[in-house]
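Please fill in the sequence for the structure shown.

STRUCTURE ENCODING:
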């Protein structure tokens, strides 16, 4: 069969899509990019919050229209939406021919066989015991790849459904990770992005000790240029990890540390460990110990019980800490979570207003950061040529793919995608930096 894959949601989900693609090809099927003309379209969904659910449903409906037009065979839905809403999908989305839960990614070829036989697969394996060492076909550009070092989560934040969809925290074997990473390096990957729901907990379920520093040291021995870290839980960031990040040149001084809030009352209600003062202490230490560190975080506005005083405390924290990158989201009330049953809900209009205020605050912080870089030189990973702007574009260490800004730059000659160049930063526009290639100036 010809099979097309569509991956929605986070990078961790993308890794599962890449694993399914490899298994499908190994089984003798043909992969194609567009779902149009395919025998089967596989949609790997996110079901974390309302916006993600809506995106997944819209994608399924669009594929249904394609099939009505005779341009698509069958639709297989995998991932978190399937895991969370199996019965609802079966009852309300007749477009869907089969389902794979989050415990059954590696059962994708069995599901295809069932579809070919006219059956309706609904495969839901044990979410606490999944196969994580499956082969992959990269869906990212050839110079960038993700390395998922663990699956599941044990943090049980009050607003989050991930533990019920992905199971308990399970670290992958270090030897297996290093073998996979070596294969990526040998294939030409230059930027390795280490991901998990919580990478700081890596190894604790295997040995009782945090093994991330040891893993990072081993990864730095491989032929990568950049190693980027997503996501670190604040109270798991210890001195050993900070020392490794500060001393290893390949590890980018870019740390994604979701805090969600900075009011002690709200942090406790969210079942987050630590206090605002402890967060201040951590970020201040990171600023002291890691040169030119760039911090990214995630923030929720409108959590039940959030008062204007709580929101003001959050704004004060962000003004003080000057976190360079932040994703700001309105609270999404998810059934099955502790937060769904909390009193004093915040109305949608108030939550939306607070999001808008925080986005504006963060935009000013980001502009200040960008302005401070003007006149300096930055190493830029070229990602392509922007026809509309008439120049090349890429990312610095301070910019993770798809979520942060870009650098638009001119060059005297041709710059290949995936090449690192030194750029003198000369301007800024709409959150992006602008500059010109200047290899001689940095020498």
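FILLED IN BY: designer on duty
SEQUENCE:
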């Amino acid at each position: 069969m010809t099979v097309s894959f569509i991956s929605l949601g986070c990078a961790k989900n993308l890794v599962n899509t890449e694993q399914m693609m490899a298994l499908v090809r190994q089984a003798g099927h043909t992969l194609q990019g567009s779902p149009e003309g395919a025998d089967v379209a596989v949609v790997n969904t996110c079901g974390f919050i309302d916006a993600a659910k809506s995106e997944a449903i819209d994608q399924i409906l669009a594929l249904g229209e394609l099939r009505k037009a005779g341009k698509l065979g069958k639709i297989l839905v995998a991932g978190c939406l399937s895991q969370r809403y199996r019965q609802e999908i079966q009852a309300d989305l007749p477009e869907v021919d089969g389902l794979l839960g989050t415990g059954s990614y590696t059962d994708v070829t069995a599901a295809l066989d069932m579809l070919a036989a006219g059956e309706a697969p609904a495969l839901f394996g044990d979410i606490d015991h999944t196969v994580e060492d499956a082969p992959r076909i990269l869906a990212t550009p050839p110079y960038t790849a993700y390395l998922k070092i663990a699956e599941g989560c044990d943090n049980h934040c009050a607003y989050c459904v991930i533990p019920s969809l992905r199971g308990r925290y399970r670290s992958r074997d270090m030897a297996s990770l290093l073998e996979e990473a070596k294969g990526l390096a040998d294939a030409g990957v230059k930027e390795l992005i280490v991901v998990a729901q919580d990478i700081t907990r890596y190894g604790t379920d295997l040995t009782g000790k945090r093994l991330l520093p040891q893993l990072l040291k081993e990864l730095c021995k491989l032929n990568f240029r950049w190693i980027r870290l997503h996501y670190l839980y604040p109270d798991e960031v210890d001195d050993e990890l900070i020392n490794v990040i500060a001393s290893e040149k390949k590890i980018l001084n870019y740390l994604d540390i979701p805090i969600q809030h900075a009011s002690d009352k709200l942090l406790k209600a969210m079942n987050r460990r630590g206090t605002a003062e402890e967060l201040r202490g951590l970020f201040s230490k990171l600023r002291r110990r890691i040169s030119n560190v760039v911090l990214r975080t995630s923030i929720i506005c409108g959590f039940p019980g959030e008062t204007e005083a709580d929101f003001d405390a959050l704004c004060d924290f962000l003004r003080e800490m000057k976190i360079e990158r932040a994703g700001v989201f309105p609270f999404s009330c998810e059934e099955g979570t502790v937060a769904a049953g909390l009193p004093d809900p915040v109305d949608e209009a108030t939550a939306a207003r607070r999001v808008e205020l925080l986005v504006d605050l963060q935009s000013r912080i980001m502009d200040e950061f960008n302005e401070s870089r003007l006149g300096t030189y930055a190493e830029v990973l070229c990602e392509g040529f922007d026809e509309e702007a008439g120049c090349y574009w890429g990312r610095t260490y301070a910019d993770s793919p798809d979520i942060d800004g870009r650098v638009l730059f001119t060059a005297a000659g041709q710059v290949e995608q995936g090449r690192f160049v030194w750029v003198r930063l000369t301007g800024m526009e709409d959150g992006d930096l602008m500059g010109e290639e200047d290899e001689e100036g940095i020498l």
